[in-house]
Amino acid sequence: MEPIGYRKEKAKKSLEKYNLDLLIASSPVNVFYTTGLPTTHVAPNPILYVLKNQYPFLSMIKEDGDESAIIWSLYDSVEEFSWIDPSEVLRAGSVEASIKLLTKKIKELGLEKATIGVESLMPRYQSEALRKNFPEANIIDSDEAFLDMRLIKTEEEIRRIKKSTEVAEKAIQACIDATELEVLDTELLKIARRTIVEEGAWGWDHLTMNIGPSDPEAPGLGIPVTPNDIVRFDFGAVWEGYISDVSRGVVVGEEPSKAKKALDYMIQVQEYCVENIKPGVMPKELANDAQIFLKDLTRRGFYLITGHHIGLECEEAHMFGPLSSMDIPFETNMVLDIEVWLNVRGQGLVGVEDCYRVTETGCERLSSLDKPTISK
């Protein structure tokens, strides 16, 4: 089968850029990215993820971009999912066996004294085993190498993100349609889950929601919809491994005037960002200009202006945000979630977020729902 997002030539350039002789993936998303194996928690059957504490999975990228993988010995469907040469798929039946195979492979490659890149979140027992078995190797954190490979999306990746976005929006619309006074957040979350599954997605990445000032990060407490309070849905579906992130609101009754004005400001700020994102533009400059634009609209309230990469994770990296900006320019086929929020007393954060693809001339919006709050 063909790789989804992984490109051998891009991997080769990334290893050259960071002076790596070998790059080891250990996290579910990076092993999925480099092998295609269903190692994530939202795979149709997440058995590899569930058993990773007993049967770890790893992938190794060599200097020329070729790959090897270590996988659970009883998993017989590697060739159904992975593009890796079957002779380079090593099978282990225990934690100890996986470490032995990793050590053996590095020795076979003659990389005992090489520079080996690992993920900063690599399990401690794995990183310690590498340092113990290869004391003369230069073992370094190489998260940036993986990001370098992942941030520019292939057409297939973009197709999956678009489909994921479509499913998330259908779930949001279903919840908006079902929103009425006294309906509980638990019922709305059930509708979201059911819609996502019925649409054929692998599952959901996040189902964030709030009713008025309730905590959006902790829904499902049985809170009822109340008059004149904004009900905000912030959903991410997962389509064949790829994630979306969209937020919309609905109110039963009258939308609070301050919230309505705040959302209008936030839509203008989001559209300002979109209009000014083009290949070659530096994110720090865009973020600074967007803040100036917002302050010309209003100087009241706490605000957030963020553009984060989206793909295998909801927030792969923050291109720009309140704390920092990446020191790389926007490039064609980056996919960003652009979200802007303003704090409104009694309603919490009011704002909007949508997914966009950077094109040669600007941005293509992947989401399609109308941005203003729906009033019922």
CATH class of the largest domain: Alpha Beta
The beta-strand count equals: 16
Strand order in space, largest sheet:
4-3-2-1-5-6
What is the mean predicted local confidence, pLDDT?
A: 96
As for the number of domains, it is 2
**Order of SSEs:** HEHHEEHEHEHEHHHEEEEHHEEEEEE
Contiguous runs where pLDDT drops below 50 for at least 5 residues? none
Strand content: 15-25%
| DSSP summary: helix tally | 11
Query: What do we call the CATH topology of the largest domain?
Result: Creatine Amidinohydrolase
Measure the end-to-end span.
49 Å
Shape: globular
CATH architecture assignment name of the largest domain: Alpha-Beta Complex
Percent range for helical residues?
25-40%
Structural class: alpha+beta
Superfamily (CATH H level) name of the largest domain: Creatinase/methionine aminopeptidase superfamily
Rg for CA atoms:
23 Å
Biggest sheet layout: 6 strands, mixed
Please sum up the structure shown.
The chain has 376 residues and is of the alpha+beta class. 35% of the residues lie in helices and 24% in strands. Strand 11 (303-309) and strand 12 (317-320) form a beta hairpin.
